[in-house]
Write the structure tokens for this entry.
Amino acid sequence: MKDFAGKIAVITGGGTGTGRELARQLTAEGCSVAMCDISLEAMAETKRLALADAPQGTQIHTHQADVSLEAQIQGWAAKVQTDLQTDKIHLLFNNAGIAGGGSMITSPRGDWERTFNVCWGGVYYCTRAFLPMLMKAPEGHIVNTSSINGFWASVGPGRPHTAYSAAKFAVKGFSEALMNDLAVNAPHIKCSVVMPGHIGTEIVANTMKLNNSNPGDARSLLKARGLDTSAFTDEQVAELMGAGFRDSAPMSAAEAARVILDGVKAGTWRILVGKDAEYLDKAVRANPEEVYSQGFFDHLTAQQGWRI
């Protein structure tokens, strides 16, 4: 797909972060967008920003939906057809994601399953729901967001990261298998898997709000970084965690969106986003037996300034 003008794109998680920037950049090129998110307020801001740079006639539609609930996604797919008066779409960006549920042993089961169901279930349900509309387009592209945690299940020693990593491994495997399936049964549709490193998004802040995360865990992490949070409220601690993740990232959400869209235009099926992602991809392949050792993490920190 060499250009996006006149196309229709569906984006999950369009309220903030990379989803917002994908919407802004696509609409700036004359691509109409239908997005979902759990936050109507966030989507309204995305729409306002996108309309400011969009050519006349570009459509932007928003819909509140939880991607982990199949009935809501099926309802949204039907609404996209009605709102945009079409039976086809050209692009599907399965972008929505949250963190949380780090430990299989100590994290609440509800948090664990919530993360897994959003990060993996959302990709599966949306692909199922929108595939018939992609089939009817002359050309189509499915873009599934995995992560560096889709090939390296860690954020560092001593910090379990099971739910998110399990989901992102599933997304990566599904995308590779789907690519082959499409080549046989729907060759006009391509599939890419996106593997971002540390990107400046609101995923940590959104997760802490959604899962009502234990502030004690956040306080412990901040203390380990030398910050005394005893005078801060739980809300302030959550804000510090979210802002710290976003503002310390080596790549912005806007930059990440541009890498993704350039990858789609180039027909790249494996899209690594960020120098840290490129470095980790090579390092994990080069020495797989050591990737969960303290030495590997120390080397990563020294080479890439890794700090999440």
Observations:
- The chain has two domains: 8-201+253-285+295-301, 202-248.
- The CA atoms of residues 112 and 147 lie 17 Å apart.
